[in-house]
Amino acid sequence: MFPDILALPFGKRECSIGPHGGPRRDAAGIRALRHFAVRCFLQPKHIASELWRENGRKPCSVAFGELYDLHDVASQGKCGSYEPLPFRIGRRRMESIYFVLTWLCHRRCRHCYDDRFRPYVRDELEQVVEQSQTNVPRIIDHLPESMMVTDSTGEKVKGRIIVSGGEVLLEPVRKSVLYPALEKIGSRYLGEVHLVVQTTGDRLTPRILDELLARNVSTISISGFDSYHVGINRPDRARALREQLLAMFEAAGVREAGNGPPGDDSPPLFNIFGANEDTWIGKLWPRGRAWKNGLSRAGMDDNFCNAWSGGLNFLEKGRTGSEVSIEPTGDVYPCCLKTRFPIGNLVHEHLDDIIDSLRDHPVYEAINRGKPETMGHAFGWTTERFLAESQIDTPQGRSYRNLCIGCDRFHEKVLGPMIESARQERLGQA
Question: What are phi and psi of 98, to 5 degrees?
Fold first, then answer.
């Protein structure tokens, strides 16, 4: 779905952007890309119109026609010798709400970012299901009144809600939690939202697929194809499941995202991915069982905050580029990795109120910019101290350094009381 590199004209030179990090040498190109692309996560056609307006020239066809992969662009000599920028531009808007409906899962994957995703039985199962049944409707009631967002051209476009687990297709939660949630979201945002259901894939059947499509699900996102999901991690099993899913999708008229006619990404769609080394999630977040098992390979150059599923632009509600993550408890976070403390709870508060209360706060503005190392400047934490606090030893005794660790430390040492104070002030004004 995403290009590995995107070439943009700027003055007499071309700007390039890639997924792996490292500043490009052309400062003017960096400023242009940040202004026109990174801030708003523009669609390529919208970047074209912005640059055309700014520079008075027609954008090049490589940048704004069909998207090319890295090898195609490089073979045409379009990417030059520049190092890639530490940003990624998606073909479509990245505005979304990532909504975890349940902790229930049928696996206990060693790479999972939260220990609570696991099998539950008997009383524990009943409690987990009841928690979701109780909280999910309240959370939906406290989402924004509209999911239409404004893109860079001023056009109103549909937002996106991704519902996930755990595994939302498991029988204890599929009919009692997932389906009512899809129906409530659909009726609340009639014609205003793209609904995405994320599943590992091995619980999807033709009947369940029909039931999802009948509830206006736009995209089925299959997320279990990697070396960690037991039962899919062997090549032969992964191949057999993929063939089964592809046949199922074809029979139901569900197309692979990005494989339709040019300009046509109309639903229903599907995509298949996993935590593989060459993907945006491949290095694994320093969270949950991935952390306990010493699996995260991220370093200081891996700024998860400034990437897909990070905190970048989370305050820009109502505009393309904004995203938050919600737990079954109602706790809401500026990123899918989850900061040490939530920014609020949607069982009791409205999301709009939470976001409004954090606007102009120096810590959250730093996260919003994808610059976590600057979050403590107003509180005596220099960038140098933040980077020093970003070092820790893994449970295996290996030295580990990543900005997420510095963010955790700042939350623990400085930010916790401020979050609670802001929450009490919101609740007092409600």
Answer: -95, 110
pTM: 0.77
Answer for the pair 250, 243: CB distance below 8 angstroms, yes or no: no
- For 217-254, what is each residue's pLDDT tens digit? 999 999 999 989 998 888 999 999 999 999 999 999 99
Residue 420: the pLDDT is 81
Structure confidence by residue, pLDDT tens digits, 74-115: 333 333 332 333 333 332 333 889 999 999 999 999 999 999
CA angle 382, 363, 400 (to 5 degrees): 60
Give the tokens for residue 70: 């890295």
Kindly write down the DSSP assignment for every residue of 125-191, as one continuous string: HHHHHHHHHHHHHHHHHTS-S--EEE-TTS-EEEEEEEEE-S-TTSHHHIIIIIHHHHHHHHHHTTT
Q: Any bridge partners for residue 197, and if so which? A: 163, 220
- H helix count then E strand count, the chain: 15, 14
The SS3 call for residue 85 is coil
Q: How far apart are CA 133 and CA 357, in angstroms?
A: 28
Buried b (16+ CB within 10 A) or exposed e, 223-244: bbbbebbeebeeeeebeebeee
- DSSP code at position 419: H
